[in-house]
Amino acid sequence: MALDQAFNANTLHVLREAVLVEAAAAGMPDDRATEVMLAVHELAANAVRHGGGTGQARMRVVAGELHCQVSDAGPGSADGDARRGDAGTIRPWPLQPGHGLWLVRNAADHVSMASGLGGSEVTAVFTLPGFSGAAAGH
Amino acid sequence: MNEDPQILSTSSLSISVAQERGYAVVSVAGEIDAGTEQQFRDALTSVLARGVLRIVVDLAGVAFMASAGIGVLMGMRRVLAEEGGSLVLASPHGEVAQVLSMTGVDTVIPMAASAADAVARLDS
Fold first, then answer.
1. B contact set with A (CB within 8 A)
2. What is the ipTM of this complex?
3. Contact, B95 vs B117, CB < 8 A?
């Protein structure tokens, strides 16, 4: 079983459902499946925001690990996160554009990234229960 | 400027504000992600702008919260702390409770099981 699904801003909720199903099918317990879903959502939301509005999510099991790859075709965030506090509000809100990736790093066992002219690709890896060398279930 | 609301707005939130004497309860329903973050922030900002510094955010109707929502809540917490105010979250459940726990938000923003309990936990 594997997942290979395109997404855009309007289909992120569809992707989330599919990721939950796929993670459960791969053997992730509910709590961990939710973390996988949250991580993939963050990567996909980044792709929508900075990667031209669409992207592709792929999930597959490799040697006891669930690999979740999210790619986009660019253009990347050439203009950066240009938001600033809106004039007229009480004060600028703390802007923390790194939140999403921080959450991914927190959830996943390993994260790797590659980006170039053709877009970017992030892979979050989650160890499946029973494959970490420790006793299964915590 | 690079934020195209057409691209990021997948849905909208239902937000109601009950302003009581000395505090407000902001009840949110929907999914808080990059597409609805601005609406969520605007609602809280408008409560602040009325001078209300003791705020309960009722998440009973929120089924999903992404990091965008976490960012708004943490920003709100900071602003209220600086202003001598108070923020309590009510009724986080399911995936929302999990993301709040996973990100450690539950250790810095008080939580309560119901809006009434949350009001009772607001600093006076």
1. 1-3, 7-11, 31, 33-35, 41, 45, 48-49, 64, 66-68, 70-72, 74-75, 78-79, 95, 98-99, 102-103
2. 0.79
3. no
